[in-house]
Amino acid sequence: LQSKDPAQLTMDEWLVIDQVLSSLERTWILIEYRQIDRKFIYKTYGVAILRVWSVTRDIVMYERSRRGSYYRQRTEKLAKATKKYFKSHNKQLDYPVVKLSTQTISKQASPNQNSSISSVGAEGTSSTNLSGQS
Q: In whole angstroms, what is the distance from residue 9 CA to residue 32 CA?
């Protein structure tokens, strides 16, 4: 997603992005209304928040140009607050985003057959046996 033009995203990609950003929006609302401890969120989920924001920032900015400046402001506030917290605690601010691998799960496999997940990533191809058999 990082190098993909936001206008070229598929509906499935938009749905996933929207779910993730909605979760971050709700997290900020909980922090804002003191329903959850902000330090707990920063310590526990801070790296994930910064990684997600680094991948989705351009997408959010693209959507703001279409929808208006209000779009995902809470997500941006959460990312900025997390970064501020990390900076004040001398934590790393930039986290590399690991290239996601494409996973294929064979839906035709019956419970008695070997099921496996095949991953294709930057390192090549690997296969993981899900049935516990060698």
A: 31
- The Cα 94–Cα 51 span in angstroms is 8
| Nearest alpha-carbon partner for 24 in 83, 75, 86 | 75
CB 63 within 8 A of CB 71: yes
Element (H, E) at 128: strand 124-129
Q: Which residues are 129's β-sheet partners?
A: 116
Alpha-carbon span 78 to 94, nearest angstrom: 15
pLDDT for the residue numbered 97: 61
| pTM for this model (two decimals) | 0.69
Assigned token pair, 128:
């993981």
